[in-house]
Task: structure prediction
Amino acid sequence: MRQVSAGILLYRLRGGEADVLLARPGGPFWRGKDAGAWMIPKGGIAQGETALEAAIREFEEELGSPPGGTPVPLCTVRQKGGKWVEAFALEGEFDPATLASNSFSLEYPPRSGLYRDFPEVEEARWFPLTEARAMMLPSQLPILDALEARLSPGRTGAGGRAAGSADTGSAP
Result:
């Protein structure tokens, strides 16, 4: 069965340049990781749920507030582990200081019998596109390409769909 998740790439335009909001996951696996560890807020699509519904739900669960507006389809990427990500774009604002992520329980340390709660998202931060490329999970970089294509001058129609899909062979 094909594993699919959905997420939103929130962006804002400042002085003709785009900034994107990325999230660094919580939990022991991601502790101490920075460059190459940031991603869009995303998660699995529940049975009976559309990709857009899942993206909106995951955004709210992971950041603590609903996205303001209606996200538009952006692209689909395949991550190294085989999971597909349906990405949506939305122009908007989010104050990282208001981050209020949901949490998950994990046996930690492994095989200890002790369970701890960790936030799904440890930190959210705005990045200029160039910096985002260095910080983002490599398998999600085509999402940034799709946003740049959508925002590039000369595109017809404000709602035009950017890059279709990318099968990347990198990162989890």
User: Anything to note?
Assistant: The two ends are 18 Å apart (CA to CA). The chain has one domain: 4-167. The chain is about 20% helix and 35% strand.
